[in-house]
Amino acid sequence: MKKKPEDYLKEPYSRVLLPEEDGRFSAEILEFPGCFAQGDNPGEAFDNLEMTAKSWIIASLDQGLDIPPPALNQNYSGKISLRIPRSLHKKAAQFAERDAISLNQFFISAIASKIGADEYHSYLFERIEKLISHYVADKIKTKKPQDNTLKIEHNHHHSITISESSKPETMMATMDKLQSLEINNATMQ
After folding, report:
1. Between 176 and 132, whose confidence is greater?
2. Of 17, 44, 102, 146, which has the fewest Cβ atoms less than 10 A away?
3. How is residue 3 annotated by DSSP?
4. CATH at residue 20
5. Is the distance from CB of 166 to CB of 147 less than 8 angstroms?
């Protein structure tokens, strides 16, 4: 039997309530990207969130997407105490005001951006690794003697260097810190 949106919403999804500077409240379900609602009081924010979440689930299912399972946030309350330099606090408040959002929303957005960037970086690195594996395998298979260097570096925890001497069997791949992208006499497609 196919699950209804109401069935999903009975599961223990992470619902978060955030007070806004204007006295209103925002609510969101963390497992559903972009699913949030507002209200004049906490109850209204949560009621609006349930309606929004139902629409979010229907739209996702209509697009053939899987509904993510509830996260197990047993050790995470969603509240943190953060000490930052006054100058950084001032800059963050200025950005939040410029964007017409609360300082809390600004920090949530900044943290989410950093996490998203790191996840995307990891995805790209994995793709590059696969492309290089195919490149190396192809060079070894064809055993074409060449003097090329394929070096891929980036500034986030990883690097791959492949050096080809006149003997393809001596190809090496090493991983270290990633900083720049340099491809000499080689193409990756």
Report:
1. 132
2. 146
3. P
4. 3.30.160.250
5. yes
Number of domains forming the structure of the chain: 2
Residues 117 and 174 in one domain: yes
| Cα atoms in the Cβ-side hemisphere of radius 13 Å centred on 111 | 9
Lookup: tokens for 135: 């490149």
Bridge partner residues of 181 (DSSP) = 152
| 111 and 160 housed in the same domain | yes
Residues 50 and 101 placed together within one structural domain of the fold:
no
pLDDT computed for residue 55 by the predictor: 95
- The helix/strand/coil state of 157 is coil
pLDDT top residue among 186 and 81: 81
- The pLDDT tens digits for 134-179 are 777 777 666 655 545 555 444 455 555 554 443 443 333 333 333 3
pLDDT at 74: 53
Q: What is the pLDDT of residue 75?
A: 64
Tell me if 26 is assigned to some domain.
Answer: yes
Dist. CA 97–CA 103, nearest whole Å: 8
* One domain for residues 130 and 172: yes
| Residue 175: its H or E element | strand 172-175
Residue 88 has pLDDT above 60, yes or no: yes
Q: Which amino acid is at 137?
A: A
Q: Retrieve residue 45's tokens.
A: 């924010």
Residue in the structure block whose two tokens are 């994995």: 126
First to last CA, the chain: 44
